[in-house]
Amino acid sequence: MTVAITVDDLATLAPNARSSYREAFSNAQPVLDLFEISASPLRLAHFMAQVLHESGGLAIQFENLNYSAARLPKVWPSRFQPTGPLNPNDYAHNPQKLANEVYGRRMGNTAPNDGFTYRGRGLLQLTGKDSYGEATRIVRGSFPDAPDFVQAPDEVISADWCVKVAAAEWQQKGCNAKADADSINLVTKAINGGLIGLAERKEWLRRTKAVWP
Q1: Are 129 and 136 within 8 A, CB to CB?
Q2: Is 107 left (phi over 0), alpha (psi -120 to 50) or beta?
Q3: Structure pTM?
Q4: Distance of alpha carbon 164 from its chain centroid, rounded?
Q5: Segment 69-109, tens digit of pLDDT
Q6: CB 78, CB 84: distance < 8 Å
Q7: Could you count the other beta carbons within 10 Å of the beta carbon of residue 178?
Q8: How many whole angstroms from its chain centre is CA 53?
Q9: How crowded is residue 111: how many other Cβ atoms within 10 Å of its Cβ?
Q10: Which domains does the chain have, with CATH numbers?
Q11: Helix (H) or strand (E) segment spanning residue 200
């Protein structure tokens, strides 16, 4: 028996959800079933906890790169003064310039504006041109009509594809098994690459477990 996610569940957890995300989750059950996320309350709770954290309670579609000059050295200390070479005043409150600096020339980003074009997007904040290409590959494994997310990156946040991208990424990274072990550390490392925001993720998990005990 699969575990259902309802409109009421979503309203409880994410009252400020974007309309596209609300629409996506209202039609998400077949996708969650396909990727076996709905196979247990524990899997669904862990999946939704990560999604809710990464998307700011389903209110964030794009990574917020509108940093102050004071904040930049704290986020990227190796890049910005006083320990790094760059003057933070040159990048403050300029998301495009900042994204191209911190994400350019890595993660498959090669063209001058790739860092900004392939900045964090969607329910699990897909980042970098390589990740958009990988998302295309794995989503097409289940949905052959999926768009090329490299060519159409904003489809990652669309009602039609946002849950499919997140669910496919979740499965690809082996997160169902990690959720079965109830290990938020392992799930977070798979999704984030580290343990950034772990305290907030734990709080989201506490809340999602209350919805799907």
Answers
A1: no
A2: left
A3: 0.95
A4: 12
A5: 999 999 999 999 999 999 999 999 999 999 999 999 999 99
A6: yes
A7: 21
A8: 8
A9: 11
A10: 7-61+158-211 (1.10.530.10), 72-117 (no CATH)
A11: helix 198-211
Residue type, 129: K
Whether the pLDDT of residue 1 is over 80: the answer is no
Residue whose token pair is 């997007």: 121
Enter the tokens of residue 144. 């052959």
Distance, in Å, from the CA atom of 213 to the CA atom of 205, rounded to the nearest integer, reads 11
Residue 61 DSSP SS3 = coil
Tokens of 187: 């799930």
Q: With left for phi above 0 and alpha for psi between -120 and 50, is residue 179 left, alpha or beta?
A: alpha
Q: What are the tokens at 20?
A: 């596209």
Token code pair at residue 55: 């998307």
Q: How far apart are CA 109 and CA 103, in angstroms?
A: 7
